[in-house]
């Protein structure tokens, strides 16, 4: 979807995207440069990205991006995903409480956290 649609989804509180073998990004590249901080899905509380083998990033932007109410994030089996926002300066998540069901993780910048061992990009072999 486009950034304009994402910003317009004012009441969306949960996104779950799974089992899409061809998806490379969730939000398409932004159409214009404008405000310094971009807020997508202003009320989003939960985001789950699972079984997306070609997903490289959630969004392509050169601006600071914030998800002010995002509390829970789950990213599993997305082996190509190295950053949450491609080319982004940072991703602000001030309300984040849980990453992959670990409530001890406090992540402020998701782009930096993508390399944290607690952010599981692939399921662990059992």
UniProtKB/TrEMBL annotation:
Secretion signal span: none
This protein's UniProt keywords: Plant defense
Domain annotation Disease resistance protein At4g27190-like leucine-rich repeats: ranges: 11-86
Keyword presence, Lyase: no
Domain of life of the source: Eukaryota
Pfam families assigned: LRR_RPS2 (PF23247)
Name of the protein: Disease resistance protein At4g27190-like leucine-rich repeats domain-containing protein
Gene source species: Solanum pinnatisectum
């Amino acid at each position: 979807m486009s950034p304009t649609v994402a910003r317009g989804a004012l009441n969306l509180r949960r996104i779950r995207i799974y089992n899409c073998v061809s998806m490379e990004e969730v939000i398409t590249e932004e159409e214009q440069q404008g405000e310094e901080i971009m807020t997508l899905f202003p009320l989003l509380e939960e985001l789950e990205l699972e079984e997306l083998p070609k997903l490289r990033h959630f969004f392509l932007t050169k601006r600071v991006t914030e998800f002010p109410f995002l509390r829970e994030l789950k990213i599993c089996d997305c082996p190509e995903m190295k950053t949450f926002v491609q080319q982004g300066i940072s991703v602000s998540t001030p309300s984040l409480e849980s990453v992959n069901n670990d409530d001890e993780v406090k992540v402020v910048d998701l782009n930096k956290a993508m390399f944290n061992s607690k952010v599981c990009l692939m399921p662990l072999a059992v």
